[in-house]
Amino acid sequence: MNDTINLLMNHRSIRKYKNEPVTDEQLNTIIAAAQMASSSSNVQAYSVIAVTDSGLKNELASLAGNQAYIQECPVFLVWCADLYRLREAAVSEAAGEETYEDTTENYTVATIDVALAAQNAAIAAESLGLGIVYIGGIRNQIAEVAELLGLPELVYPVFGMCLGVPDQEPLLRPRLPLPAVLHKNGYDREETRVQVKEYDKTLSSYMQERSSGKQTATWSEMMAKRLTQPARLQLKAFLESKGFMKR
Amino acid sequence: MNDTINLLMNHRSIRKYKNEPVTDEQLNTIIAAAQMASSSSNVQAYSVIAVTDSGLKNELASLAGNQAYIQECPVFLVWCADLYRLREAAVSEAAGEETYEDTTENYTVATIDVALAAQNAAIAAESLGLGIVYIGGIRNQIAEVAELLGLPELVYPVFGMCLGVPDQEPLLRPRLPLPAVLHKNGYDREETRVQVKEYDKTLSSYMQERSSGKQTATWSEMMAKRLTQPARLQLKAFLESKGFMKR
């Protein structure tokens, strides 16, 4: 175990921040580290909007489901998949030729690129003593978020990330047992089933501890609740309207 | 600058490995670190197949475009988005209710989840002195890869990752200037355009240095070449056939 692995193993999402700033130097260091993540053929198909304007943060918090920590964190990052910059660069050199920015492949590439960069940013931030939480809620009203931030076509907000000095130390959340996610030379359905049953007990104990006995849900129960909710069904139409995934 | 940020800033993709093993202990440490990455509502919608069987590695190398380092690395990881495990867990608790695993939202969530976990794995591996390279080529013949690894429906191979002891030290590849990817309180198209022009010069110099003067392409030229190629157009149909993104 080295310091970096120790840092990775101690990740917690932070939802309460001290009233202290994130400096420009810290932000630039974090984003520079993000940029060094791998990128498919060096396309670097992402952009990040640093939101520090408090009015704008309030509007985004409201669009993302009124999560107070979006207003309270000093910097709110909106991580965007960005094929606009790529297409602009490409068409300046490929006038008249057909381009393929609108494929499911390139949607997938851009979504992967932004996630790899954001995870580097998360780790860099935590190594500086800052805390983060990913905010999927910015996809709740994605068209409004895109308009508010002036996103061009071929850019979509993938997730937000609050950034600030932690003012809480939550419990570590136990993950699935290693053999539930790590398969050897082929996918093992039976092992997965057995390990999920084991994890159901682990997570139910964790929920009881965290809620002082009020919650006892297993992972399977929580996943059933989540998967039976019709969440963000408008995403497909929004993405197509922005030029993504037409084929 | 701390050790972790120093590690992130020195990432290079490694495509040549020493004939030395990756131990089970190293692999377990790397995947455990991967599991601590954030996951949307704790869905943990990914699996990873560790391929060490040399016959299987050869077949995957062949399917991914005959990249020798896939055969030569001691462990080849295939990172998969996995909504199968989630649905199996959920339907055991939600018999009869409609479930929404087939949405574009859940495709996106699973693709993000696997990328966040994989990037943690990459960093953990590098902190242990190992090298990695992401392999998008496993999407070239994705149906064959899925069959070879026995992937159930609702599981797709997102990318591969070679893992091994580095036997090369490539140049650091310069990234886009920071202001090309970092926007303040809104997307800035004009700044992006200016910064890409600047990067074109930087990357052309880097290509010349790396190729001893034989290559001089700018980033815009490389992106034009990439974006005019009809890459992996079968992905959409494959994903739909596996139960993804039906709505």
Key structural traits:
homodimer; 247 residues; alpha+beta; NADH Oxidase; 2 domains; four-stranded antiparallel sheet; 11 helices; 47% helix; flavoprotein (chains A, B); FMN (chains A, B)
Write the layout of secondary structure elements.
Two copies of one chain form a homodimer.
Chain A: H1 3-9, H2 24-35, E1 46-51, H3 54-63, H4 68-72, E2 75-82, H5 84-91, H6 104-127, E3 131-135, H7 142-148, E4 155-164, H8 178-181, E5 182-184, H9 189-210, H10 219-227, H11 235-241
Helix pairs in contact in A: 2-6
How would you describe the overall organization of this protein?
Chains A, B: Keywords: Flavoprotein, FMN, NADP, Oxidoreductase. The structure is a homodimer of 247-residue chains. Chain A is α+β, with helices and mostly antiparallel strands and 247 residues long. Chain A has two domains: 3-170 and 230-241, 3-Layer(aba) Sandwich (NADH Oxidase); 178-216, no CATH class. Helices cover 47% and strands 13% of the residues of chain A. Chain A contains eleven helices and five strands. Chain A has helices at residues 3-9, 24-35, 54-63, 68-72, 84-91, 104-127, 142-148, 178-181, 189-210, 219-227, 235-241; strands at residues 46-51, 75-82, 131-135, 155-164, 182-184. In chain A, strands 1-2-4-3 form a four-stranded antiparallel sheet, with helices on both faces. The longest helix of chain A is centred in the middle third of the chain and has 24 residues, at 104-127. Chain A is globular, with a radius of gyration of 20 Å. The termini of chain A are far apart. Chains A and B meet through α1, α2, β1, α5 and α6 of A and α1, α2, β1, α5 and α6 of B.
